[in-house]
Fold:
Amino acid sequence: MNLILDASITLAWCITRSDPSEAALAQEALNFVRLNRAQVPALWYAEILNTLVVFERAKRLSPEDSSNFLNDLDTLWIDQDLTLPSDTQSRVLAAARTHQLTAYDATYFELAHRKNASLATFDRQLAGAFRKAGGHVFGDTPDTP
Structure:
C-alpha cells in the first residue's frame, strides 16, 4: 500500500488535533509510516516548516519543540517524490481546475493519483475531491490504510 502524506496529518503528530477521531487517525497514520513508508511532494517540506514557524511565533511551540519534531520526522521512511515539476504541472493544473483545489492541494492529489496511493489528509475539500476521482483516503475503511 502506497501512502501520500499531506502536511495537515503530519503536523498532527506534533500539534494534537482537538477532534479525538482526528487525533486517533493521525496516530494511525504515524504507526503506518513507522512500519511501512510514505511519500510526499517537495512542497510538503515548506508547508511543515512554515507551520512550525507560525506556531512558534504564536507561542504554541518552542524552537526546541520544532527541532525535536523535525528530528523525529527524519527517523521515518518519508520519501520525497523526485518527479520534475515540468512533468506534473499540467496534471496539477487540471486537478486544481477540475476539483476547485488550490495548486498546493492539487499537488498532493496529482501525486496520490499518479502513484495509485492512499491520501492521508485532514483537508476536507482535498479528501472529497480525491474520493470523487476514485481515490482512497486514509482512514475511510477501518481495516485498510
About this structure: The chain has one domain: 3-132.
